[in-house]
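Reviewers asked in the last cycle whether our approach scales beyond single polypeptides. To address this, we selected a multi-component target totalling 988 residues and predicted its structure end to end. The input consisted of the following lines:
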Amino acid sequence: MGNEKVITAEQLTKRFGDFVAVDAISFEVSKGEIFGFLGANGAGKTTAMRMLCGLSLPTSGKATVAGFDVFKQNESIKKKIGYMSQKFSLYEDLTVKENIRFYGGIYGKSDSFIKEKTEKLLQQLHLTNEANALVRSLPLGWKQKLAFSVAIFHEPDIVFLDEPTGGVDPVTRREFWNMIYEASARGITVFVTTHYLDEAEYCNRVSIMVDGKIEALDTPAKLKEQYHAESMDEVFLQLARKATRSDG
Amino acid sequence: MKQFISFIRKEFYHIFRDRKTMLILLVMPIVQIVIFGFALTNEVKNSKFSVLDNAHDAASAALIQQLDASQYFELQSNLHSYNDISEAFKKGTIKLAVVIPEHFSDDLEHQNKAQVQLVADASDPNVANTLVNYAGAVILDYQDRITQDKKLPYTINTEIRMLYNPQLKGAYNFVPGVMAMVLLLVCTMMTAITIVKEKEMGTMEIMLVSPLKPLLIIIAKAIPYLLLSIVNIISILLLSVFVLDVPINGSIVLLMSESILFTIVSLSLGLLISTGASSQQTAMFISLVGMFLPTVMFSGFMFPVENMPKPLQIISNIVPAKWYYIIVRSVMIKGVGIEAVWKETLVLFGMMLFFLGMAFKQFKIRLA
Amino acid sequence: MRTLKFILQKEFRQIFRDPAIIRMIFLLPVIQLIILPMAADYEIKNIQLAVADHDHSTYSRQLINKITASGYFKLVDYGNSYRQSFGEIEKDRADLILEIPQQFEKQLVREDASTLFIAVNAINGVKGGLGSAYLRSIIQDYNREVRMQWIQFPKFSPEPTIEITSSNWFNPLMNYKFFMVPGILVLLLTMIGVNLTAINIVREKEIGTIEQINVTPIKKYHFILGKLIPFWILGLVVMTLGFVVARVVYGIIPVGSFATIYIFAAVYLLAVLGLGLLISTYAATQQQSMLISFFIMMIFILMGGLYTSIDSMPEWAQWITRFNPVSYFIEVMRMVVLKGSGLADIKQQLLIISGFAVVLNAWAIYSYRKRS
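The resulting structure, written as structure tokens, was:
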């Protein structure tokens, strides 16, 4: 893992009226790292991630992604990142192949690149037979894996995953994390939010958000040590008890 | 029953949370009724006309003066030749040209017979037709005046009374029409779309496994729109009475009940559409692109149904707005009671049962 | 440019993947275009007449015969009480009452004058006005006949008469379909255009796919163009289909050139689709977008000059119609199809509609935000 910082955030804040969704968070993520973002529903994880992706304008603070400023250079950032949102966001009325081709195309990849890589990807996902099936007809687990593959299809520096394994069975979750490791091994930095605490163990470093603030940030091992806990579950519960915001 | 009420409550939350939609739903009918009430009239007022006066004598001057004085016509600068007419038509500066031949006065006085030619721009034949008729009536009036001066024997006079709408206001005709359109299309569209949306989002499944009967779920979805429509009906009626001066001559209770019946017909139609549509877009297409123009044209407020060819008169019967329009016109403006509109009411009632029955049947097929 | 190609490919695929929508885009206009124009006849025929005859004389019968023979009137009720006739009006079975007073014939012969009463249902003002005007002119004709019987004036008519001849230019047969068919085609085209685009972007918002688009480096105008072009082509296809129907069913061939119509339509469609996209960028849900487009459609269509004449509207309403693209297209259709106007004649309308197209699309691009 290099020391090159691909994401930096300093006092990053987002307000919606009186409500402070993200409250002055600061952190850095190194190249190739798998960085976990933990928190209860409504803790502000998604909002923080959306600011970094250029989907939401921060109210104050500073942040850079892949060396670009999130305030001014948000369109430049977009060339360097991949994103997979909480809501499944491939086109259900397009086929597997058409979806891949579309996203490859709008990232400016050449036809030959798209063609070759599509073949490879379909094989890896065991979707060769479903290449011309509508995405609508795939089971949820397959859809999620496909969505992830599409998010890193254009070989971004960083991929943002917003609760990628929601509603997926344990076997598929396992496979999904294998894909994340592979991506990371290829040098892609992974920024992932989750509320599955076992998944936190898979991350290189984990930050835990409570009520819009980062309450803890370290490797899973160090966090467990610091909070005298057996598992991340316990760490999380100790911190989450302080929460005043209700669910949602 | 408790579950049912909690379902209705949920639907209300959905609607009231979405402030923008609520606002549109409540303000739109008000704006429309005011704009259309004042602006729409199939009367042709102040139509621009010119005269090609080859006579330039006392009678021609008097005739032109009489035309200009009528509320239908507005005199534009005079024409000098026949060619000017087509020029003016092409530019659209006038709709009607009146050609008065030479020796108009002389002919009229000495031979008791003179001619006038009316030339109309018939690219809008309906307007042209009306203008020619009105101009004819004004000329007839002028002729009457000379006749009366001469005290001719054996004269049949006519006295005309305009019933219900002596000032011939467009609003008397268009308020009931617009009311029918707004209620029908808004209710149909909204119900169809809300239900299809649940289908699209997959939340319909969740509701169907609840212990509530499917029919009740559907009714619960429609009730908030029924209440919103009642608010709309009241605001439309208040506006027509106090702003547009269109009176409610009949019973308000009857008018309200008929309006509620019509709203339920529209909601049921929306329901039926929702069972057939797979996406919100399809639902919108059917309820807007498919129904808008037929409602405008067949309900009778734009084009009198009895003017249409027979097959179209038959088709017009399946347009719910037609029946409601007749009812509103009768109850609101003529001031008659249920004895005059019971047939139309029965038709609406039948339509409601038909739509609901069909919708429920379709719904069951899909569940099975 | 390459990006645009991929967006277009995707949009076209999505449109053609939903056969229900495709069917409706083509079928609804064709069916409506075949049926609706026949309903749009303002010419007043079959006016339902109720007669309350208190006289029962030769003259009253002659008069009634003359009226029914004219072809404009249908005698639906003949009685001798005004109240009964009025009941017919209340039940919508009659439009007009002619009341012939007692001693009508006697008074006319002995006192040289007699008065008939006409009562009209004037809720629909035009129908009332025209109906009574027809009736009056028939009565006057009859009056002349009566005079002729009593006074022997072989040479001249006893009263000054103004003979009215009328001619109708551009449409001498007064075929209202020549006016209505192109007009209705404009309305259908507008509805389809606005509705398809109004729902499009907001649909991606609702489903969530727009998020995925927004994190890509896609240019805003690429995205909007990608939405615009497929529907623009569809619109032109629908219009062509409409002209085929106009030709085959109604035998309508524009006096002017198709090129003029297509040039105007091409720009017009851009304006209308831009409006739809603009609605789509503002709306949060498909439902909202549909309500807004319904609202706008209703004003556009009812105030477009097809159904009611714009000249008869009050000043402020005429001012509103200046912002109504539909009114320009209907005017242009009327000019080109019936009067044979060319590009030079519609220059002003073309300029204005181009203005609409530029402003609406620029606004749509501006208001489409990739970042909230």
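Residues 32-43+74-240 of chain A form a domain with the Rossmann fold fold (CATH 3.40.50.300). We regard this as preliminary and will revisit it once experimental data from Aim 1 are available.
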